[in-house]
From TrEMBL:
Domain (Peptidase M61 catalytic) ranges: 312-370
Keyword Signal carried by entry: yes
Coiled-coil segments: none
InterPro entries per record: PDZ_sf, Peptidase_M4/M1_CTD_sf, Peptidase_M61_catalytic
Pfam families linked: Peptidase_M61
Protein name stated in the entry: Peptidase M61 catalytic domain-containing protein
UniProt keyword terms in alphabetical order: Signal
SUPFAM superfamilies: PDZ domain-like
Amino acid sequence: MTAPTSRWLPLALLLAPACAALAAESPKAPIPLDVVLTPKADAGRIGALQVHLHLPAPRVAAGAPLLRMPVELVSTPTAAYRAEQIQVRDARGALPLRAIDEAPDPSGTYRNYLATRASVGDVDVDYATPPRKVDADTRNGPLFDLRAQDGGLMGAGVYFMALPPGEAPRQIHLRWDLSALPAGARGVWSVGEGEQRATAPTDLLRFSYYAVGAMQRVPENDDDVFHFYWMDTPPFDAQLLAKQTGQLYRYMARFFGDDGSDYRAFARRNPYPAGGGTGLAHSFMFGYGPQGQTIAEGPQALLAHEMAHTWPKLDGEEHALTAWYTEGTAEFYSLLLSLRAGVYDKSAFLQAINHRADGYYDNPFRALDNTAAGERFWKDSRAQRVPYGRGFMYLVSVDAQLRQHGRQAHSVDDLVLEVLKRQRAGETIGVPEWRAMVVRELGADAGADFDAMVAGKLIVPPAPAFGCYRVVPAPHQPFELGFDRMRMGVVKNLLPESAAAHAGVQENDRIVEYTPLEQAMADEHTRMQLKLERDGKPLQVDYLPRSARVDAWRFAVDPALAARCSP
């Protein structure tokens, strides 16, 4: 890849209650929440997004929180309004707020806005924020912030929305006031375009995407279940990407028994040479660099992974203990269903599963148990990748065993779809239930294998994998750039024992030019050539961006089983 990339862990644990509430009726009448979003434009350029909330008689006591929002979430700053930036009025007039921050947790810090007196009658709230200022030195991260694009704004509600606290479902009515924008402008929420209604907790508003302004959409058919939006003209074929991604989404939805659910994908430009994406409520946003950088395999693989997150999950545990399933199933089905849907041919599929295998064996945190890896998720992007590789390789292993020895299930498909079916029937299916399912199908050894996976023990899948692949030793030297790949404008977090450091790279060197990362990652012998600037003087550094050799395994077609090489 030409740039650092990241998929970023989805905040499924936060979205689950909101998404579940969309499909279920509350026994109590939900409290109404009216939301109006108004872009403020000057000379055709949107300079701020205003939020208006109408709360019918919330009866907030003096000193109780009226609103809540994050100050920082997974290392990404938000609008983090000061109390005086939020105007509140009720039947008595102005209602001043007082801001107080909660103690930080591993994912970030939240701020509560407390009423300085008891509210009287209905409450109206107004606040606004400009888009976040970003440049070539901005660190890549989750796509939460509100950013300017040519023609409009794109971002997540978690960046700019201060909302009533609590998990109770609300009767949300969201509207757009586009009167300041030219004809043809759109206002889009993850739930739909234009005026929308939904019954869900306020987390649905927070953990959704918003786009407003002049944008393109594929397909133009309002009734389609999949829509793809972009504003700037990207350096890749957005029309083709939208068509292929829509094809795959429809296939995935049918596979998971969810033919009618809408999905929206958004693409936005980054000012730095990096990409990646984040999935939120039935939607996904990905960023691309100036040359179209996303992830090494391109935007199609990125979108496939995030769309697969829409369905499989385990209940009832903290995220670190279920991330192997959340990320593992997304990796597994983004590839397998791409093959089945005809988006990948068999050669591309083999290349993709070997890329996943390399990612698993190369990770320096591979041996951490699930809890220990979870403690590092938001501190080190390499730890964040542990559940991706671990979950994928574990599911490949279980799938191979089920194809040979399953008692009722004949592949991982049967178990994953069983989990969904039982959850839809109202059961709580979590880690203990999954473990019981694999023991039911494969015996006590499957329970021990599961425990070993959780503990971070090495996974080498049995052959044949996917029905036709041998699993062959492939020791190699993992790629190691030597510094933070998420910020390629300047050297940060230089590893002192890395080849980069030994070659003379120093912390805070400004990066002028570098060997495309996908080129260096694809070939063990490709050297990294950096053009740097230090104290105003140019210099050039050349080194092999690799760390110590590791034991690893890859997949190869077994000639005797080639005819079975099908999904």
